[in-house]
Amino acid sequence: MNIKLKTCASAIALAAAALCAAPAAAQSPRPIKIGFVTELTGPWTFFGTSCVAGLKFATDEINKAGGVLGRPLEFIVTDNQTKSDQALAASRNLDINDKVLALSGPTSSDVALAMYGYAEQQKIPFLVPVAAFPQLTKPGTRYTFRIEPDAAGWGYAMAKYIEQVRPGAKVALMHSDAALMRAIMAGFRYQAPRSKLNIVADIMFPQGSSDATVQAAQVRAATPDYVIVSGAGAFDNVITNQLLDLGIKPQQIIHPFGITTQVFGWGQRSVGSIYGTFFDVGLDSLTPDGKDFIARFDAANNRPPSYVENYCYVTPYIFKEAIEAAGTADDREKLRNAISALNTKERTSGVPIVFDKNGARKEYMYFQEIVSVNGKRNYQSKQRFYIEWDPEVIPVYDLVK
Amino acid sequence: MKLASDRALWIFAAAALALPIIADGNKFLAFVLGMTYISLLWATGMNLMYGFVGLMPLMFAGVAGIAGYAVVHLTREFGWSFWLAMPVATVMAALAGVALGLPSLRLKGFYFTLCSLVIQTVLTLAFIFFPTYTNGDTGINQIAPPDWFGGQLKGLGLELMIALFTVVGILLCAWIVRSPLGQRFVAIREDDILAEAIGIRVVRCKIIAFFIVSLYAGVGGCFYSVYIGFVSPRAFDVLVSMNIWLFVAFGGRGTIAGPIIGTAILAPIPFLLQELQAFKDILSGVLIIVVTLLMPGGIYGAWLARRRRTQKAMTDSARVQESRV
Amino acid sequence: MTDAQILILMSTLSTGLILGAIFALVAAGVTIVYGCVWLPNASNGQFFLLASLAAWTFTASFGWTSLAAAAGVLILGTALSYLLEWILIRRLYDTPNRNVAYFVVTLGLTQIMTGIFSLTYAKWSDQFTLPPVIEGITMFGPFPMPNNRLLVMGVSLLVLVLLFVLLRYHPYGRALRAVFQNREAAALRGVNVRAIYRLSFVLGSVIIFLGGILFALAYSYDLTVAWTMSITAFAIMIIGGPGSVIGAVVVGMTFGFTQAIVSIFASPTAATFSYLGAMLLILLFRPSGLFKR
Question: Domain A32-149+287-361 carries which CATH code?
Answer without folding.
Answer: 3.40.50.2300
